[in-house]
Design brief:
Blueprint (H helix, E strand, L loop, with lengths): L2 H7 L13 H13 L10 E6 L2 H15 L2 H8 L7 H6 L7 E8 L7 H19 L3 E5 L1 H8 L15 E10 L21
Antiparallel strand pairs: 1-2, 2-4, 3-4
Helix pairs in contact: 2-6, 3-7
């Protein structure tokens, strides 16, 4: 798919059909991750955890499900709760996606903040690669943030990360319940100054 078309088809998918993605599809996502730009070429500071086991995803969901129950806090995050699809998030913050890829980064102090740029580039590369294959995907922050806010329900140890790594973002991937549809491209969503 041409890049401009890819951007028109890209969307955050929050409803998935049953069925696991294929090994070939997963390999394409991992190849995209390994093609993403990483600051100072330090690919060793990135770790990917591919989770396809429902029991691990359920464990990692506990803090997010608990956090959704705090309606005042949720209004701060998502605004009008009547517009948010809370029923699915309450049941499963990963939207029943069969695969979630967590992108972790080694703790470091040499370049403060670069870890967020690195994992965002890696996650976005996989997100676009998923779109290119006709897969649905959505970037995942809430479950990890919830575990940081509720340490008693922090189950990130289930990811069996190398020492010194912290999961910062995830990408839920699967077959979309509805086929991806091209949208109009817009250049006015982000305020821009040309100096």
């Amino acid at each position: 798919m041409e890049y401009s078309e890819l951007l028109r088809y890209r969307k955050s998918t929050r409803r998935f059909r049953e069925g696991q993605i294929t090994g070939e599809e997963l390999s394409a996502l991992l190849a995209a991750a390994n093609s993403a730009p990483v600051g100072s070429n330090r690919y060793g500071d990135i770790h990917l955890s591919v989770v396809q086991r429902r029991d691990i995803l359920d464990l990692l969901s506990q803090a997010a499900i608990r956090r959704w129950q705090d309606k005042d806090r949720m209004r701060e995050i998502v605004g009008d709760l009547s517009q948010a699809n809370t029923s699915r998030a309450l049941a499963d913050p990963f939207y029943a996606a069969p695969t979630v890829i967590f992108v972790s980064h080694r703790k470091q102090s040499a370049q403060p903040g670069i870890e967020f740029a690195n994992v965002a580039c890696v996650a976005m590369a996989m997100h676009l690669a998923a779109t290119d294959q006709g897969l649905g995907s959505v970037l995942m922050w809430f479950a990890l943030e919830s575990m940081r806010e509720i340490p008693a329900l922090d189950h990130t140890a289930a990811l069996k990360l190398p020492e010194g790594f912290v999961p910062l973002i995830g990408l839920a991937v699967g077959y979309p319940a509805k086929a991806l549809v091209a949208r109009e491209s817009r250049a006015d969503k982000i305020a821009t100054d040309i100096l």
